[in-house]
Write a structure and sequence with these properties.
Helix content is 30%, strand content 26%. The protein is of the alpha+beta class. The strands form 6 sheets. It has a 5-stranded mixed β-sheet with strand order 5-6-1-7-8. The protein has a 5-stranded antiparallel β-sheet with strand order 15-21-20-19-18, with no helix packed on it. Helix 14 packs antiparallel against helix 15 and helix 15 packs parallel to helix 16.
Length: 548
């Protein structure tokens, strides 16, 4: 049996390079991705040039801007990064049939018996690097007999061990050197000094049987231990994996727990560590080849009927339902026509799919005729049986009502788009325009929480505050000019004072505290006016809503 070979691929600048891929000169951009952590803005990914200037992930944004005033930042999108990493996993599938996702910026490949297809292990890594460069990505690779060994080589190969500076050590130094030691501790109190990042040339291949020698000079952090444990080991002088492996196992396990020895044994291959390849998303498809080209709508509807019946049988066998369908029509002249349908709920019944697809048939140009039709699911979801949808209760109950509402949303969404159909959910805020959340109806459930009852009546329509012209006095009965028209006041009630949320930065509330009035004009309009008393900017009178 051949020796197991694991390849770890790490994308150290994944977040930044994902956004810089379409830039002509990404290496010259001072760019960073920022995320909010612990009430602070920190860097999560930096470009190559920004890294060369001393910026690194985990650094506070204010510190980075002090070092690089021209730094360009973008907020982090975790979902987009995860989807991009999943796409990279599909790309890596051409190098190995077993590909798994490691963390937020890494891949694991089982390349046992695959390297010879690319000219050996070195040739495999060279091919990976060349193709990643074409994609605008930088990567580092580690190849070893174990998962932990490959992970360690990819991230720490070629790095030296930084000097450890603890508070106790500084106190024990001479008075003449104590001031200089304090200056060296600006990185992290009681932690290790930063390690200088290494370039792409730090890739490491551990030949079979030579993994312990390659791991020995690496820092203890390469064992995937918690930072607290790494710092405690460094205080004892155990900074390298070789230092740790030479110590008595029982003493280390009693002091630091079994995780330290487990990670060491996994990296060295003494304890097996399974690799979990990413399972491909379930996709279902069926096609219908036609003996003669068709183009009439009746023929297309008959073909769609047969396709949906076949597809639903496949879905029902796996307990899946379709959320996104794609119908492809292959024409006799070699052209391709395709339409897509998104559903508000997962369905596995032909009668639920067929009307939605038939609504899109007018968008297909048959040309000289259609030779083949193909129907596939882009997105699927697990079918869940709800109360009222099975047995004697089918067609009645809340489950059936929710299904009927979802079908209605799907039909309307097929014409105007699912994103255009929204529903409102209550929100915990005393600000009128923030008292409700607007969510897409297709991807949200109806609100179950009770709606809060405001102290005063709220208008039917609320818009962004619009300035009105009137004397700067507290007399609400004076006429005012709004939207190019003079309005006479017939009656008014109020005021209702609403203060801004001082713990949030909201540009719309920089004018300070507001006093709201319900004003009835001589034309019968009931408007919602307020007077801002001035905060960061000057105040004044504004109109923000209209009552029924």
């Amino acid at each position: 049996m051949p020796t197991r070979r694991i390849l770890s691929i790490w994308f150290p600048r994944l977040g930044a390079e994902r956004l810089l891929r379409r830039v002509t000169d990404p290496d010259t951009r001072l760019f960073a991705v920022v995320s909010a952590e612990a009430q602070d803005q920190v860097l999560t990914s930096v470009s190559l040039r920004a890294e060369a200037l001393g910026l690194k992930p985990g650094q506070p944004l204010r510190t980075a801007q002090a070092l690089c005033p021209d730094l360009i930042t973008r907020p982090r999108n975790r979902a987009a990064e995860a989807a991009f990493l999943a796409a990279l996993g599909r790309w890596a599938g051409r190098f190995s049939p077993l590909v798994g996702i490691e963390g937020t910026a890494g891949l694991l490949l089982d390349v046992t018996g695959c390297a010879h297809l690319f000219g050996g292990e070195a040739g495999l890594i060279a091919t990976l690097r060349a193709e990643a460069g074409d994609l605008g990505l930088s990567l580092r690779c580690g190849l070893a007999d174990t998962v932990g060994g490959a992970w360690a080589l990819a991230r720490y190969a070629g790095q030296g061990v930084a000097a450890q500076r603890s508070g106790d050590a500084i106190d024990q130094e001479a008075r003449a050197t104590r001031s200089r030691a304090a200056k060296r501790r600006h990185w992290e109190r009681g932690g290790a000094a930063p390690v200088v990042p290494v370039g792409a040339e730090a890739d490491e291949i551990a030949p079979p049987g030579h993994l312990p020698d390659r791991l020995a000079p690496l820092p203890v952090a390469a064992l995937r231990l918690p930072p607290v444990v790494v710092a405690d080991l460094a205080r004892l002088g155990l900074r390298r994996i070789g230092d740790l492996a030479a110590q008595p196992r029982a003493s280390l396990a009693r002091r630091f727990g079994p995780e330290v020895m487990l990670r060491l044994d996994q990296a060295l291959g003494h304890v097996p560590e399974p690799m979990s390849p990413s399972a491909p998303a379930p996709r279902f498809a069926t096609r219908l080849s036609l003996p003669d080209p068709i183009g009439l709508r009746g023929d297309l509807e008959a073909a769609v009927c047969r396709l949906t019946e076949r597809l639903c049988l496949l879905l029902q066998a796996k307990g899946q339902g379709a959320r996104h369908l794609r119908l492809e029509a292959y024409r006799a002249d070699g052209g391709l026509q395709a339409v897509e349908v998104r559903l508000a709920r997962a369905v596995d019944q032909p009668e639920a799919m067929r009307p939605l697809l038939e609504m899109q048939l007018d968008r297909i140009d048959a040309g000289f005729g259609i030779d083949m039709l193909r129907l596939e699911t882009i997105v699927t979801a697990r079918m869940e049986t709800r109360q009222g949808e099975s047995g004697l209760g089918r067609g009645r109950g809340p489950g059936a009502q929710e299904a009927a509402l979802a079908d209605l949303i799907t039909r309307l969404g097929g014409r105007i788009g699912l994103e255009a159909i929204t529903r409102r959910h209550p929100a915990e805020s005393h600000i009128p325009e923030k008292s409700a959340l607007t969510l897409a109806a297709a991807w949200s459930e109806p609100a179950t929480a009770p709606w809060p009852t405001p102290e005063a009546r709220r208008p039917l329509l609320i818009w962004s505050p619009e300035a009105i012209t009137r004397p700067e006095t507290g007399d609400i009965t004076l006429p005012f000019r709004w939207r190019g028209r003079v309005h006479e006041v017939a009656g008014a009630s109020g005021p209702e004072r609403i203060a801004p949320e001082w713990w949030l930065e909201d540009p719309a509330w920089r004018s300070g505290v507001r006093d709201y009035w319900q004003v009835v004009t001589t034309r019968g309009e009931r408007l919602w006016l307020f007077r801002a008393h001035g905060g960061q900017i000057s105040g004044g009178w504004f109109c923000q809503g209209r009552f029924a």
